[in-house]
Every structure is written in structure tokens, then in C-alpha cells.
Design goal:
Largest sheet: 8 strands, mixed
Helix content: 10-25%
Distance between the termini: 24 Å
Radius of gyration: 22 Å
Number of helices: 4
Strand order of the largest sheet: 1-2-5-6-12-11-8-7
Strand content: 35-45%
Length: 403
């Protein structure tokens, strides 16, 4: 029982938020399906995965707790996790719960995680929405798109109507507007866009490289796209769509796009235009505008509405999500962590992993290592012990299910 407690893992979920800060992955929110009912995960929990030791730990949080949500947008800036937007059984967050922008200090000096709601700000915040995206640039949180509701007087060219309810004159649909929150000025602004933006969409993906914000795919009206756009975050100019040479990924929504290195983006998973859960991965090279399929992925582990974060050594850490079509089945929520290595590992990391995997055979030589290096080795030993434990537990579950 002690081992099970030590090697715990965050609960299964979809539609959650995840960010990296230093060497830790932080997971909050989302939902699961229990007996065909959507159940939102506790809002007072934050799960932390230490990438060096491979251990999960759950912390209770305090303060101005955000409501339990799915489809919120999480972003990390200067050691803070910011949460905006989302949906629960009461409706869209910033329609029901006043202005829904919260932050959690991920480096608390007291050791206690405390939420704070941004109650005093300048400017006009975005209308209610979920399944939006965010770029973190300088000291700004830059939000794009999403699906949500607006009143009749809020309709404009940045909103494609999907459905309408004349009771309260509410309209539901997709957005393609840009909303900026300046964390230093505590102010919302809507910059003037100098070119034609992409079609309004939701459940798309975004990534930042330099001063450029990239957007791929997403749900647009009744289809799922495979277009790639870039926004210059200094001039607020859209590219008009990047022309791709050669093969391209299929259209999709509920996927992820992650920067790996200085000039590449990693695309993974999602739901296809035919409502098929996807397990493919692609690398986009910005210099030559070419997609290349990532061949070394397991084909039996599809994911959609998951999260993906970039690690220190160009790793992409995919957590949670669903392996089913959420629109029809919605039972296959996951809690495993898939780690994809997109570029060769540094020599030090290779050596640490070799020692960690073979710690028993090398146990008599470990004391000869310098103290600082020994500390790193011990973390990798723990990492691989945790990995073996979880693998044996998965294999045990598979045997029990077959029997």
C-alpha cells in the first residue's frame, strides 16, 4: 500500500488545464463521465508532476477558488497559473461567475497554494466562451477564439452564429477575436488587427515561437480544419494562412500544438473530420513550411481534449484527454502521461537515465559520485522505479480486464 501511495497519479480527465513551470507539470480542472453524467473535477486541487523524479503529488488549494470547469484556458506567466473561460453545469464561466480570470502562485513562499481572482481591472473583458487558446508574450496573456454566447448587441464580424435562443436574446457560436490581458497594467484590451483573421473557431491549438503566435485547425461551423495561421504579436498582423509544401495532417479539433526547439512545432492527436480519435503526430518546420509525420508513436493510444507541454529537453508531455469520440461515447477518459522525445537527448541526460535504469547493478559505485551529481542520479532512480511500478500496474489491469 505504501508503494501505491508513493506512486500515485492524477485522476483521469478531459478538458483540463496543464502548464509547465521550471521542472514541474501542473494540472487543474477538467471533467470525467460517470454513468453518462459529466462530473467536474474538484476545484480546490492542483496536481503536480515532478519531471525529474517522475512522482505525482496532489496539493489542496485555498483562497478565491475558481469554480470547477472544463474547457478553460490555462497559461503560465512568471510562476503563476492563469485560468480564464470555461464551462460547467451552470453555464459559461464569465457569463455566470462574473469576470472569470484567476491566478495561482506556483512558487508559494509559505508552501500553501492560494488562488486569487482578478477583481479590479481596466477595459472590457472577452464575452463568455470555452475551448479557446492563449499565447503568453512578454507580460501579456493573448486569447484567441473559442465557442461561447453573446447577446444581440454584442454580435459583430468576429462571431459566427451557430444557434440562437430568443429567450434573453442569446446567441451561441464561434469567435476569432483577440483579447489581451496585460498582467502589469491589470487591463483588458482588444488590439486593432491589420489583416484578415482566420475563420472563427474553437477547440483549435496554438503555440508561440518568438513573437509569432501560431494557430492550427479546430472546429469551424460543421467541419474541422487543417489550416495553419500565424499572428505577429508586435504588429497584430495575420499571415492570411501559411502555404504548405507537401503532405499535410488531416483536419481536426481537440488536438495540441507544442513548440519544440526554435523552429519546429509538434502536432498531436485530436478528433478528425470523420469523428475518429487520432493518435498521429507531426513536426512542422518553419523554415521550409513542411509537415513531416512523426513515425515513432504508438497507434493504439489516441487522445483528444488532452494537454501537451514542452519539457526541458524538447520533450512533449501529453496528459489526460479521451481515447473516445466525446460527442457520442465519452467514456474513455485517461490519466496516463505520454512523453514524446522529438529531438536527441543531451549526453548528461542519457547517462543519468542509464544509471537510473540500472541502479541495482551500480549500487556499490553510486557513493563515489560527487554530491551534486548524486542528487540528480537519485531523482532518476526514483523516476524509473515509478515508471516500472506504473507499467506493472497497467499490465495487471489489462490481464484482469481480459480475464
Amino acid at each position: 500500500m505504501a508503494a501505491a501511495q508513493r506512486f500515485c497519479v492524477a485522476e483521469e480527465r478531459s478538458g483540463h488545464c496543464a502548464v509547465m513551470d521550471r521542472h514541474c507539470l501542473y494540472v487543474w480542472g477538467g471533467y470525467v463521465t460517470i454513468e453518462e453524467n459529466e462530473v467536474y473535477l474538484p476545484h480546490d486541487e492542483i496536481w503536480v508532476y515532478d519531471t525529474e523524479s517522475g512522482l505525482w503529488q496532489m496539493h489542496l488549494t485555498h483562497g478565491d477558488l475558481p469554480p470547477s470547469m472544463s474547457g478553460s484556458c490555462g497559461a503560465c506567466l512568471n510562476g503563476r497559473l492563469y485560468i480564464f473561460g470555461g464551462y460547467d453545469d451552470k453555464g459559461y464561466s464569465n457569463q455566470v461567475h462574473t469576470e472569470f480570470l484567476y491566478y495561482l502562485d506556483l512558487r508559494p513562499g509559505t508552501g500553501e497554494f492560494t488562488w486569487k481572482q482578478v477583481k479590479h481591472f481596466k477595459g472590457q473583458p472577452p464575452t463568455a466562451r470555452d475551448k479557446l487558446s492563449c499565447w503568453v508574450y512578454k507580460h501579456q496573456l493573448i486569447y484567441f477564439g473559442g465557442y461561447g454566447s453573446r447577446r444581440q448587441h454584442e454580435l459583430n464580424d468576429c462571431f459566427d452564429v451557430h444557434d440562437a435562443s430568443w429567450e434573453g436574446q442569446m446567441f451561441w457560436g464561434w469567435n476569432n477575436d483577440i483579447n489581451v490581458f496585460d498582467t502589469e497594467e491589470q487591463a483588458w484590451t482588444q488590439p486593432v488587427i491589420k489583416s484578415t483573421p482566420p475563420q472563427a473557431r474553437a477547440a483549435h491549438s496554438c503555440a508561440l515561437l518568438g513573437n509569432n503566435g501560431y494557430v492550427f485547425g479546430g472546429r469551424v461551423l460543421q467541419t474541422r480544419m487543417n489550416d495553419l495561421h500565424v499572428l505577429n504579436l508586435d504588429t497584430w498582423t495575420w499571415s492570411g494562412g501559411i502555404r504548405i509544401t507537401g503532405e499535410t495532417p488531416h483536419g481536426r479539433s481537440w488536438h495540441t500544438l507544442t513548440p519544440v526547439g526554435d523552429d519546429q512545432l509538434f502536432l498531436f492527436g485530436g478528433l478528425s473530420a470523420e469523428s475518429v480519435p487520432l493518435s498521429d503526430g507531426w513536426i512542422f518546420n518553419l523554415h521550409i513550411n513542411v509537415w513531416t509525420e512523426f513515425k515513432h508513436l504508438p497507434k493504439d493510444q489516441p487522445r483528444l481534449w488532452h494537454t501537451a507541454c514542452a519539457g526541458r529537453d524538447h520533450e512533449v508531455m501529453v496528459f489526460g484527454g479521451s481515447k473516445d469520440d466525446l460527442l457520442s461515447l465519452d467514456t474513455g477518459h485517461c490519466n496516463d502521461l505520454l512523453i514524446f522525445q522529438t529531438q536527441p537527448l543531451p549526453l548528461l541526460r542519457l547517462c543519468l537515465d542509464c544509471i537510473g535504469k540500472n541502479a541495482f547493478q551500480l549500487r556499490n559505485q553510486l557513493s563515489c559520485l560527487p554530491q551534486k551529481l548524486l542528487q540528480q542520479v537519485r531523482k532518476r532512480i526514483t523516476f524509473w522505479a515509478a515508471a516500472r511500478f506504473r507499467q506493472s500496474r497497467r499490465e495487471g489491469h489489462e490481464i484482469n480486464n481480459k480475464s
